[in-house]
Amino acid sequence: MRRVRFESIRDEAAEEDRLTASLAGLAVALLVVVAGLFLIQHLRDKARVEDCLMAGRFNCDAVLGSASR
Where is 68: in which H helix or E strand? Predict the structure, then answer.
């Protein structure tokens, strides 16, 4: 009787550990996605300014300001 009870407690603890690990993995994955989206937006803005400068224009801050609106 005792053995079954301890195994049940052990199984519940293992299930809680798996759930915690799964939630931690999901949090890390979401963090990577958010960081990737931020990086993509930042690089896109830099590319627009660089394209503007390569075209020989001087008011490239206006290009960046109008693109974010």
Answer: none
The DSSP annotation for 27-59 comes to HHHHHHHHHHHHHHHHHHHHHHHHHHHHTT-S-
The model carries a pTM of 0.64
The residue range of the domain holding 25 is 2-67
Q: Judge contact between 68 and 45, C-beta under 8 A.
A: yes
What is the number of structural domains in the chain?
A: 1
d(CA 58, CA 45) in angstroms, rounded, equals 16
* C-alpha distances in Å from residue 14, one per residue of 2, 20, 22, 24, 56: 18, 10, 12, 15, 63
pLDDT digits (tens, 9 = 90+) for 29-62: 999 999 999 999 999 999 999 999 999 988 888 7
Sequence letter at residue 54? M
